[in-house]
# Entry
Amino acid sequence: MTETIVVKIGSSSLTSEEGGINKERIAFFANELASLHEAGFRVLLVTSGAIAAGFKKIGYASRPKLVHEKQAAAAVGQALLMQAYQEAFASYGTDGGIGVAQILLTRADFSNRKRINNALMTIEELLHRRMIPIVNENDTVATDELKFSENDTLSALVGNLVKAKRLIILTDMDGLYTEDPRKNPNAVKIDRVDHITDDILRIAGGAGSSVGTGGMRSKIEAARIAMRGGVPVFIGRVMEPGDLMLAVKDDGKGTYFDTNEHNLTTKKQWLGFHSMPQGRIIVDEGAEKALLLGGKSLLPAGIQAIDGDFHPGDVVEVFNAHQQSLGRGVVNYAAWQVQAVAGLSTEEVRRRVEVSRIEVIHRDEWVTLRA
# Structure
């Protein structure tokens, strides 16, 4: 099967600080993406830039802050962005150039299994027809509570969804460093990462430019999502012709995040990355080890506390005593039932509540999210 490559490009790479599209940069990236396409890869682009492209056109002096202003800017900018991509790809390929298609998604689309499966079928048909799907968040309708924090996360979810061969997240840095090399010339570049530890997260940089919203930290968080879904990641710089192909060929100017995980089933992907948890369960050290290392289900005996009002069949997130997220699962108990039997033995649980199965979360309905 032809390999699928997902490439994410941020606002700062596509637009100017003053607002508006930088057509020279879009032409450059179109050339890089066209090279992959013509080499036989299935190429999918996750783009930012709609708000940044539109706010100047609509008459704002700077990037707007209010939700309705951002949504208006996005409505204008998304059309300008797609027009720029269409023009840029028109000179490649045959019969009028490489075709592009717009896919606008929100977090709510991912949380609904039917809707995201429909989106996947659309994307697969476009890729089959040798089009380049261009994915962006639907900023015009997304509300704050349903928005992605930035498109780095969106790119990881899309990469997992299409079972990409590699996710390439572009940035103005040539990879991850032990410290910010712009501030400390002795910072050391990290070429490869096979395990995202708390130390890796701590050394990830802060916010990006005033145009974009994602810094290095958000890119590392996205890499963790993709790696857990079985998709290796490259985070780095593409500044010269051929750099994108080098990134795909394992010789890019950046950091590679390898994974030994296998692609999750569609159901497990939805559970781990797209579902919206209705509550939290805090477990003790024994339950943590059983879930992460022992391949076990979650029993009432290992539960310390709960938060939220959930019901059987809802998704809940499980945390350890240090408030670190361990994973998600489909719960078999109502919140009040878990509260009533937390910390009790199986025999005592059976005497106190009536449930369909003794496991609070069965192993088959669980996804580990902590490495």
The chain has 14 helices and 15 strands. Residues 206-214 have pLDDT under 50 and may be disordered. The longest strand covers residues 361-368. The radius of gyration is 22 Å.
